[in-house]
Design brief:
Blueprint lengths: L1 H20 L2 E7 L1 H4 L9 H12 L3 E5 L7 H15 L3 E5 L2 H5 L4 H17 L3 E5 L9 H18 L2 E3 L23 H12 L5
Parallel strand pairs: 1-2, 1-3, 3-4, 4-5
Helix pairs in contact: 3-8, 4-6, 6-7
Length: 202
């Protein structure tokens, strides 16, 4: 009887251990590029990534806190509450596009992202920073300075970086606005993100 009881307790402990592992959260803090703008939300790269991780890393679950139109300032206002609510193990940070498209200050965008990363690291979560690039019509100097924000912050904080999340997306896989990828582009974006995310899941 004692042996049986020990086995039951051992199985219960293993179940609790597995349950704890299953609650690791990956938080996506982004804008329309991650919120599935113009497509079915189920077709978005974030949802596709959740489906992929269910097969390969079932202990992780995704929370997509992305909002279309979000800026780095908006993300900075929201990150504290999101960290308290979800206690993520990893934060995928995809912000800045709307700052750039509005011609916002590069220094201000960098400052906001810097503060977000600091809060995430202070909460003992890992960061995957998704780089954004602007269309060339915003001027060579501005687009260069904007593009350099991401590797600069990655180096400063020693966080993982995907230099350009839309790398490899052909022109025909963008929506009519030429800014947002369509549903056909989402699997490639998902794989771009997954390659950079994998080292953070161990």
């Amino acid at each position: 009887m004692k042996t049986f009881l020990k086995i039951v307790l051992l199985l219960a402990a293993l179940a609790l251990s597995n349950s704890a592992q299953a609650t690791k959260t990956i938080l996506v803090l982004g804008d329309s590029l991650s919120a599935g703008y113009g497509i079915e939300r189920g077709d978005s790269w974030a949802n596709l990534l959740q489906q992929e991780l269910k097969k390969t890393h079932p202990q992780f679950e995704m929370v997509n806190a992305s909002i279309s139109g979000e800026t780095t300032a908006g993300g900075l206002r929201r990150i504290g509450k999101a960290l308290q609510e979800y206690h993520p193990a990893v934060v995928i940070l995809e912000l800045g596009a709307n700052d750039g498209l509005r011609g916002g200050s590069v220094a201000e965008t960098e400052k906001n992202l810097n503060l977000i990363i600091e809060q995430v690291q202070n909460a003992n979560a890992k960061v995957l920073l998704l780089g954004i690039q602007l269309p060339p019509n915003y001027g060579l100097n501005y687009t260069r300075q904007f593009r350099e924000i991401y590797p600069k912050l990655s180096k400063k904080h020693k966080v993982a970086l995907l230099p350009f999340m839309l790398e490899g997306i052909p022109p025909e896989q963008f929506q009519a606005d030429n800014l947002h990828p369509n549903a056909a582009a989402q699997p490639l974006i998902m794989h771009n993100v997954l390659r950079s995310l994998m080292p953070l899941l161990h």
